[in-house]
């Protein structure tokens, strides 16, 4: 009976351990961090800033600073996702995400072929006057 109990526990451990290893194995990231030609906003940085509205809450609270974002750009230059690396709050993080998502980028290229890429960028929020 004791041998059967330990065999069953060993089998259960093997099944669970094997399941977690195959289920939660990391998939390779399809977005390259570097490319021969990195993506650029079509129209330059002003194209991004024209899509960003300074949040009233941030204006009233006097919030200024840089929101650092990581942008995931597909092979066609579209924005698949935007992640905040470091935010400043007051609605600025969400405004930066929304503005970047509305921007079209030139696609990254390796060997002349479009590839998915990651691009880091700082979006500055600065009150005038």
What can you see in these coordinates?
By secondary structure, this protein is of the alpha+beta class. The protein has a single domain, classed as 2-Layer Sandwich (Fusion Protein Consisting Of Minor Coat Protein, Glycine Rich Linker, Tola, And A His Tag, Chain: A, Domain 2), CATH 3.30.1150. Helix content is 33%, strand content 25%. The strands form 2 sheets. A 3-stranded antiparallel beta sheet has the order 2-1-5, covered by helices on one side. The model is unreliable at 1-5 and 19-23 (pLDDT under 50).
Catalogue the unreliable spans. 1-5, 19-23
Major beta sheet summary: 3 strands, antiparallel
> What's the structural domain tally?
1
The CATH top-level class label: Alpha Beta
Which overall shape is indicated by the principal axes computed on the Cα atoms? elongated
- Estimated radius of gyration: 23 Å
Distance between the termini: 82 Å
**Fraction of residues in H or I helices:** 25-40%
Order of helices and strands: HHHEEHEEE
**How many runs of DSSP E, i.e. beta strands?**
5
């Amino acid at each position: 009976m004791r041998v059967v109990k330990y065999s069953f526990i060993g089998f259960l451990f093997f099944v669970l351990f094997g399941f977690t290893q195959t289920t939660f194995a990391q998939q390779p990231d399809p977005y390259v961090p570097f490319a021969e030609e990195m993506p650029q906003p079509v129209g330059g940085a002003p194209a991004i800033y024209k899509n960003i509205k300074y949040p009233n809450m941030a204006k009233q609270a006097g919030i200024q600073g840089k929101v650092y974002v990581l942008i995931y750009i597909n092979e066609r230059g579209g924005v698949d996702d935007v992640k905040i690396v470091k935010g400043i709050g007051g609605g600025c993080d969400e405004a930066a995400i929304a503005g970047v998502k509305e921007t079209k980028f030139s696609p990254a290229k390796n060997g002349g072929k479009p590839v998915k890429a990651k691009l880091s960028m700082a979006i500055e929020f600065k009150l005038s006057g």
